[in-house]
């Protein structure tokens, strides 16, 4: 349900490839569970998937080593925040590996749109498309 009544015009038209959830004034955007599966960001060959899994496994191992090497500083807020950040990234990497095994890597967890190959290259454990990540962290 929309609570605002104003309308706005876009400076440039919305591309046809933009999912309904990301289009302005879309009342009937499909719910996440209503959308069918979409291909995973151009990663279709077994070799690509194996390479990505190996990369994620290496990143997971590095983060595990990093977490275990950090000391428990119960009164140091910076050290606590840093350790939590590393743990959060480790969890995201594990989720990405799980989604890769399920064939869902490259599909946004929020809108079910495509996570671009460029985004996956920059952030191999990305589970959100750029638009959804931007909304989440802004």
Automatic annotation (TrEMBL):
Q: Where is this region: Disordered?
A: 1-44
Q: Which UniProt keywords apply?
A: Metal-binding, Zinc, Zinc-finger
Q: Does the keyword Cytoplasm apply?
A: no
Where does the Zinc finger DksA/TraR C4-type domain start and stop, copy by copy? 106-137
Q: Which domain of life is it from?
A: Bacteria
UniProt cross-references to Pfam families, sorted A to Z: zf-dskA_traR
Zn finger residue spans: dksA C4-type: 108-132
| Keyword Metal-binding carried by entry | yes
Q: From start to end residue, where is composition biased (Basic and acidic residues)?
A: 19-35
Q: What is this protein called?
A: TraR/DksA C4-type zinc finger protein
Please report the organism this UniProt entry assigns to the protein. Answer: Nocardioides pini
The uppermost taxa in this organism's lineage are: Bacteria, Bacillati, Actinomycetota, Actinomycetes, Propionibacteriales
